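Dear colleagues,

For the upcoming journal club I promised to circulate an example of a predicted protein-ligand complex. I picked one with guanosine-5'-diphosphate because it came up in last month's discussion. The inputs are reproduced below in full, followed by the predicted structure.
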Amino acid sequence: MHVIGTAGHVDHGKSTLVEALTGIDPDRLKEEKEREMTIDLGFAWIRNDDSDDEIGVVDVPGHRDFIENMLAGVGGIDLALLVIAADEGVMPQTREHLAILDLLEIRGGIIALTKIDLVDDPDWLELVQLDIVENLQNTVLEDAQIIPVSAITGENIDTLLATIRHQLSQIKEKPDSGRPRLPIDRIFSITGFGTIVTGTLSDGYLNLGDQVEIQPSGLRGRIRGLQTHKTKIETARPGSRVAVNLSGIAKKDISRGAILTFPGIVSDTVLCDVQYRHLSDSSIPLKHNAEVKLFVGSAEVVARTRLIGQKQLKPGQSGWLQLALREPVAVFRGDRFILRRPSPPATLGGGVILDPHPGRRHKRFSPQVGQKFKTLETGTPEEILLLTLQRNEPLSIKHLFENSGLDSETAEKAWQTLQTNEEVTFVNETIYSRDGWLSLVEKLKSLVTSYHTDNPLRIGISREELRSRLNITSSLFNNLLEEVKKSGDIALTDNMVHFPDHKILFTEQQQRNVKKMTRLFLNEGVNSPSVKDTKVMISDDVYYAMIDLKDLIQLNQEVVYLADTYSSLVNQIISYINDHGSVNAGQTRDILQTSRKYAIALLEYMDQSRITERKEDDRVLRTLTS
Ligand code: GDP
């Protein structure tokens, strides 16, 4: 199914021609009838007696005051019918509409040179045609056929119809990517039916009963009725004019410019990266931070321009922009758009959306940003997918596909290639680019290196501290650590992450202090110096290093032993329990010839270490099963 749209200067005979082609008067507003002028979009269709392949017709206003209404209807058409009155020839809005068709890259087109009944002079007709050909040069309509017609006498209307049908038969059916969207160009309600929205459907089918979502609002409803060209249907095809009767959404909650789609297909945006061409007959250059009106789909939003890599764009120049929008819109990569100056109103230029979700404001003159735009503009789907991933990794597949702006089929193919070439790494449910993953590994290693340098007396950095410095989730961190450990580049001791060959080395002075301290500990045996005194003897740093190295065992806030002394005390207690079945605090104190303080510290530490367990006042050995 196809849709064609009119274009051309006011009063050149667009609506009359549509009526001659379709038998339907497209001017639907009372005001339009009174002023004999099209103000808003009009809709009609060309019947086909042989098949159900009707052609939708969007009739747009030609008056310059209503050019913005024209923009809401012209997107999505397969073929433009540029109407030029033979008695007047090319006029200002003929040029402006032509420029818009060119910027929107509407490739199919026919020139209807109408009102030929008013021209008697063949020389004039020839002149007008020459002027038209000149104006079409270097535009999408360069090769368009010019067909002289009269809507009043009916001359050549059949030829025009046949040409329209022939050209449309050459155009491929609109693809079905399973992601239907209907840019809404009209909303009304009918008593007994409720809300109805209309638009030109693209990218997929809509069915009666489907659950749908309006974006940007996110409101959900159900399709209660479907019509195309005033005929009830059960399924609407991509490329057709569709009226959707909605249940669950009120008319007041929808406005022109929103899109109707399936839930979860698109999220709205207030920032877009775009490729832009400034019209050559624009009177002024496009400046950075200029206020403009963006027209995309049937939407119209005020935006500010961020010029990327250039100070300004002169008439005829192309470049990259980041558009910051005042209100959200729902757009897709590849959507074409127009920018207009709000006042005095004029079409400035237009282009194509490269990235609907850039995520952040770009630095204007950064080489990385330039590289990003270049890839988005000319890159392969693989490059685009990888770029999207690298900017926001890690991502789930769903988010990666969505953010890339590629259609699901292209994204899926590119994804397969990336996997085959091992350019991506799966971590749990998320994906890293190979480079992104490697740089994370490098970051981890460099954090461990700098920790060793800053803390030569610590065995390593604690897992938690490392994780928080990397600023990643626990599950990701665990996976990362596991991978790097497997490679043998780092090791773990008691939750401390370190290089396998990292050694704690004391200075000579520190070694002397340690020796002195050890002697004192050996002399005192069970009645060891306190934690506080030990720290004074060897310094806090050395103390904690010896704890890390397990040369010292600290039992509680006060009691600390040399590792050997601790083992021998534990052995004495175990052997007492083996002989007597159990031991209590008093007995421990007596066997070890010490005070209650040390006895209790030892027993409690043995409980914590799961050597013993407490049964009322006694300790027994923990059995393997207990
Ligand atoms: P639009 O503003 O481009 O939609 O123009 P209209 O279709 O409203 O036509 C403008 C005027 O031109 C109307 O008075 C029409 O009757 C008249 N008109 C349109 N087509 C023809 C034609 O082929 N021949 C003649 N003589 N008049 C025409």
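Two points we might discuss: The mean pLDDT is 90. The longest helix spans residues 434-454.

See you all on Thursday,
B. R.
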